[in-house]
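Sample 3 of the quickstart, ligand D-glutamic acid:
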Amino acid sequence: MPLGVFDSGVGGLTVFRELIRAFPDTDIIYIGDTARVPYGGRSQEIIVQYALELARYLTENYHTDLLIAACNTISSYALPAIEGELGIPALGVIEPGAQSAVKLTKNNRIGVIGTSATVTSGAYKQAVARISKETEVFQAACPLLVPLVEEGLLDGEIPRLVLKMYIEPIAEKGIDTLILGCTHYPLLAPLIRELYPNMAVTDSAENIISHVEAKKESGLRVIATTDTGGAAESLKTKLVGGIPITKVFLS
Ligand code: DGL
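Result:
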């Protein structure tokens, strides 16, 4: 049975890309809620409701037996509700990211950048505290980064200034490791690494793979979104090339 991957938009394709590389024979279905992205400024209640609709779509249409929330915002709030309603395991990106950061830090000071919802949830702080009591976590909500990525503005003066505005205050706390706590942000990683060359940078996409058990199937790939066109299409092409987008309606 296929693996179901879901996100508020196309940012989660950074996770999908790693999954299809790592598991060439596994059937992997992606849905992104491009009609309603971004989720990062929404309430917990709405994030859970939207996430449940995406998870239901995957299980009802593809009979997925494992769900991966390729979205930190969804992972921060909705996994218990999804597992409770659908009765199948739902993996998130928070724990893997926290584990990787704790391994990377040498001074036990970790920074997290994410959406306002992810930062408010405190999910990364809690996940790091479960692994290491000595490690301090400094967070920054970065609401302008998702629109920059969705618009494909990944280099140049504007993203540079915006990134510095968000990261500088936590860099000043002496962090040596930065968690990209939003699946859109790996697209900004080259610029972040250039701005902060001495910081270890870790993201959701690279850390989830070891948490997934692969199955041998036909290697089916499906990308569904709730709206089409615009920047999402070009971002999809940049990340995963020619896999076509199917437009779907959530009920
Ligand atoms: N990709 C989502 C995440 O990882 C953020 C995008 C949004 O705000 O919907 O948090």
